[in-house]
Amino acid sequence: MDWLSLYFELPVFQRQFKGAVTCPFKKLYVAMTLYSDVINRNEVVQHATEVNSKHEKPTSESGKQASIKSEEACKSMLEFEWLHLVLQPELVTSVDHVSYAVSRALTNVLSQKVHSGHFATEVVYMMGGSSSVTKCMEEMCIQPCEPETTCKSMLIVTISKPKKFGNIDNIVKGIQMPIEKLTAITDQEKVIRTFKCSKDELELPGGLNACILMRIGTKRI
């Protein structure tokens, strides 16, 4: 049986911030839905941006944004109900690619070792193959375009605390595909170029997917 969407739970094993503050939840819920031939990419990207923009890092009494590595800013990164990622599926090697990145982003926040000011951005950064947050966002996320063209494939990932996922899937005008088709859409040569995978890495047990998961585990420790 083919599943059109995938839902899974990610338990939080590290329950405290670097300080004495306890993480306010025990698990995150993740939904993944794959589409082809999406004709309204700009509307979908705009909706995700509007949902995610509600959770920017806080400002201090002086009006300046807090340091992204302060405890206050890190705590605020987890003050969301749900967040959306609109991804290029040809650069996603597996469901594990997503789950590892979400887990690693959460670890970064709790350890106050983040590289961005937003949890959704932190996840994309951990998924990407560059040391630049901006470049990871450009490579991994679907971008709006003018004039708007049909998006051949789109992967929507929603990260939720209350096990509610919003209505982004109701907005998409495209063909929903079984999530099992994700690995068939992955462009392995493009992934290898984007992540600059070496021949030695690709010869390890697990091949390309293992290489990407290893990169997530060791990125900017």
Report what the structure shows.
This protein has 221 residues and is α+β, with helices and mostly antiparallel strands. The chain has 10 helices and 5 strands. It has helices spanning 41-52, 71-76, 95-110, 119-127, 133-140, 168-171, 182-185, 188-195, 199-202, 207-218; strands spanning 5-11, 27-38, 82-87, 151-160, 175-177. Strands 1, 2, 3, 4 and 5 form a 5-stranded antiparallel sheet that branches. Helix 3 crosses helix 4, helix 3 packs parallel to helix 10 (207-218) and helix 4 (119-127) packs across helix 5. It is globular. The protein starts with a strand and ends with a helix.
List keywords for this structure.
5 strands, 10 helices, alpha+beta, globular, CGI121/TPRKB_sf, 221 residues
Q: Quick recap of the structure?
A:
The protein has about 220 residues and is an alpha+beta fold. It has helices at about 40-50, 70-75, 95-110, 120-125, 135-140, 170, 180-185, 190-195, 200, 205-220; strands at about 5-10, 25-40, 80-85, 150-160, 175.
Could you describe the largest sheet, including whether it forms a barrel?
A: 5 strands, antiparallel
Number of strands: 5
List the uncertain runs.
58-66
Rg of Cα set: 17 Å
Principal-axes shape call: globular
User: Helical amount among residues, as a percent range?
Assistant: 25-40%
Strand content: 15-25%
Count of alpha/pi helices? 10
Distance between the termini: 40 Å
Order of helices and strands: EEHHEHHHEHEHHHH
> What structural class should be given to the helix and strand makeup?
alpha+beta
Kindly report the average pLDDT value. Answer: 89
